[in-house]
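Inverse folding, one chain.
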């Protein structure tokens, strides 16, 4: 069975559990999806395009590298895809926020194509760089007198990636939900016995309240009743302890 067919089967299995499709993090699977996109007559071409656009997890996974490389081919017109224009490819890169997308954007920013250089630079001003290799590229270009690199570095030194974020709401409305009586801990919300599923948030969410679906449904109903509010979980007549392991996954 192909990786794509296995993924479709996984989607069907998750649907029976009330779960959305799991994001794609496997580069080999995404390569197969891209090959189906390139096959104009492939029966799964439309679904493959949707998976490529919406279902690839951002970050530094192997799938993220494959996605960034294909978007690079679209932008530099090595490959033409009617459904994804170069401008849309830049937008998709901007949402990936890290790793291979930054590398690709820096390559375009420092390229000799002025249009692509400006578009990439504008996006880079909204990003946070995690790797020295990215900064090293910009430093080398800056020392060679590259004005685009200088512009990006000035923006970064001014923290425009943070200062240019949308303003916070003046008022944040909250509705509370009593998660328990007395002292409780986050193990009640994220059980240690289900730690294996923490990277799959939807699946892990089904373990909330020690797998008590009635309480889970109460919480979801409260959220639906107050769409303009943030739901805050509280402990009545007690405190809620937080375990550091809840940051894992």
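Residues assigned per position:
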């Amino acid at each position: 069975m192909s990786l794509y067919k296995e993924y479709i089967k996984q989607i069907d299995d998750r649907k029976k559990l009330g779960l959305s499709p799991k994001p794609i993090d496997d580069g080999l699977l995404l390569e197969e999806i891209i090959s189906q996109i390139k096959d104009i007559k492939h029966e799964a071409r439309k679904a493959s395009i949707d998976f490529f656009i919406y279902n690839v997890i951002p970050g530094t996974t192997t799938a993220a590298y494959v996605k960034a490389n294909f978007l690079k081919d679209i932008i530099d017109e090595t490959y033409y895809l009617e459904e994804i224009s170069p401008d849309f490819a830049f937008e998709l890169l901007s949402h990936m926020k890290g790793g291979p997308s930054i590398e690709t954007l820096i390559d375009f920013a420092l390229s000799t194509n002025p249009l692509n250089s400006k578009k990439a630079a504008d996006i880079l001003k909204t990003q946070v760089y995690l790797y020295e290799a990215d900064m090293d590229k910009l430093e080398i270009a800056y020392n060679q007198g590259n004005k685009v690199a200088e512009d990006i570095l000035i923006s970064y030194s001014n923290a425009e990636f943070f200062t240019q974020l949308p303003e916070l709401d003046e008022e944040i409305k909250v509705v509370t939900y009593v998660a328990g009586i007395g002292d409780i801990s986050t193990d009640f919300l994220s059980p240690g016995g289900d730690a294996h599923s923490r990277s799959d948030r939807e699946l892990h969410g089904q373990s909330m309240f020690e797998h008590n679906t009635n309480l889970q449904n109460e919480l979801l109903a409260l959220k639906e009743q107050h769409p303009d509010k943030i739901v805050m979980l509280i402990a009545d007549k007690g405190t809620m302890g937080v375990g550091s392991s809840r940051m894992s996954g």
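The chain has two domains: 3-163, 174-247. Residues 174-247 form one domain.
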